[in-house]
Write a structure and sequence with these properties.
Layout lengths: L1 E5 L3 E6 L12 E7 L12 E8 L2 H11 L5 E7 L1 E5 L5 E7 L25 E3 L4 E2 L9 E2 L12 E2 L10 E5 L7 E4 L1 H9 L7 E5 L14 E5 L10 E6 L19 E4 L6 E2 L4 E10 L23 E6 L5 E3 L9 E3 L2 E7 L7 E11 L2 E5 L4 E4 L3
Parallel strand pairs: 18-26
Antiparallel strand pairs: 1-16, 2-4, 3-4, 3-15, 4-14, 5-13, 5-16, 6-15, 7-12, 7-14, 8-9, 10-11, 17-19, 19-23, 20-21, 20-24, 22-23, 24-25, 24-26
Length: 378
């Protein structure tokens, strides 16, 4: 029922065609295999780009130790599509934990001359003179490159503990091109110290990379942490903190599918660092006529236990937090229904809205009744 997001401490793209080029401050990350270029140095091979993304270990530890209240949690890497093309059915993307640390650098894709400080295809840090390992790998560590152009990262493919370090996501012609992959085992290993946290590398499968066929040219452009949009990469933590304990309260479940739901403590404006407990007041829209000493309209009811919330961006109409039967389940106490939102995962200076999903008497309802709010700076 809780969702918390952290954002990259650094990211960049490695280009085989430009072995010393750094793009650590570019607004776009790229992952591709291209055959249509004319550089004579590498004319015998396709051009390959891979992306690196890293998250701060202190932030990861803080989420796990201070915020997650359940042993049942999941962590997903989410990176959003800017412009993708050439992606055929069953194009498989791989995500691995990196085996070497690297420097972000200060380059951008369009800088002339190119910036060489920071990570590139050949270097983990050009300034210090440190290169990617290309031989004599440690246990479970590998790399992939052409012998005439060594580099491109080094990464773990497995572990002695059986945790999953090879994460895949398949795309086809019509599927969404956003990356949304479960990397929980990788994050747990970073947190436990089983492997050092150097971030992850994203690359196409070995059957795609260096393929010189013009029919195999997946080209994915993704928003980086330096984007000026609302789509920076994120490591999203979800955990189940659902509670249902009404104590000795006499509050009852609503039985009519015609209901009115309001948020009595929605102030409308919220700080991006706040943690908010939103309460729901629920009542039948048309209560039965019976004699009673208090108003029908002040009595609160409970939604069915299988009720969920979602958050949408008001302008784009995209789900920021989608309905989830495990992680966005609505809780209840002796005052009524509630759920908790961590505002840090919402871009400031934007409007959002809540949606509520439930099922009453076999009828699925999605309540979308102008439940608006804004996250503000300061």
């Amino acid at each position: 029922m809780a969702v918390y997001k952290i954002f990259p401490s650094k990211d960049t793209t490695l280009y085989s065609l430009y072995p010393t080029k750094n793009t650590g401050l570019d607004s776009i990350l790229e992952i591709y295999n291209r055959t249509s270029y004319t550089d004579p140095l590498y004319i015998s091979a396709a051009e390959v780009a891979r992306s690196l993304v890293a998250f701060d270990s202190t932030e990861i530890a803080d989420v796990i130790e201070s915020k997650i209240s359940s042993s049942q949690w999941q962590s997903n890497l989410r990176i959003f599509n800017a412009n993708s093309k050439g992606i055929a059915n069953n194009s498989k993307l791989f995500i691995y934990p990196l085996a070497q640390d690297w420097a972000n650098g200060t380059g951008k894709s369009n800088y002339v001359p190119i910036t060489e400080n920071g990570a590139s295809w050949r270097w983990i840090d050009y300034v210090s003179g440190s290169k990617w390992t290309t031989s004599s790998f440690g246990a479970y560590i590998t790399a992939s490159f052409q012998t005439t152009n060594p580099g491109g990262g080094s990464w773990y493919t497995g572990s002695s503990t059986g945790l999953k370090y090879e994460i895949t996501q398949s795309f086809d012609i019509r599927s969404t091109k956003d990356i949304n992959s479960n990397v929980t085992d990788i994050v747990k290993s970073w947190y436990s110290g089983s492997i050092s946290n150097y971030g992850v590398i994203l690359k196409w499968s070995s059957s795609i990379e260096y393929n010189q066929s013009s029919s195999v040219e997946p080209d994915m452009s993704l928003f980086s942490v330096d984007t000026h949009t609302i789509y920076p990469p994120q490591l999203e933590f979800r955990w189940n903190d659902y509670l249902f304990n009404t104590g000795s309260s006499t509050i009852t479940f609503v039985t009519s599918s015609q209901i009115v739901a309001t948020f009595p403590n929605n102030k409308g404006f919220f700080d991006p660092n706040s943690i908010e407990k939103f309460r729901l007041d629920v009542r039948p829209q048309y209560p039965n006529r019976t004699f009673q000493t208090s108003s029908f309209y002040v009595q609160n009811y409970l939604l069915p236990t299988a009720s969920y919330y979602a958050v949408k961006d008001l302008y784009t109409n995209e789900f920021i937090i989608d309905f989830d039967t495990t992680y966005t389940k609505i809780s209840a106490d002796d005052q009524g229904n509630y759920f908790i939102i961590y505002m840090n995962g919402l871009e400031p200076e934007r409007y959002y809205k809540f949606l509520i999903k439930t099922s009453i008497n076999g009828e699925t309802l999605v309540l979308d009744d102008n439940y608006y709010f804004k996250v503000i700076n300061g």
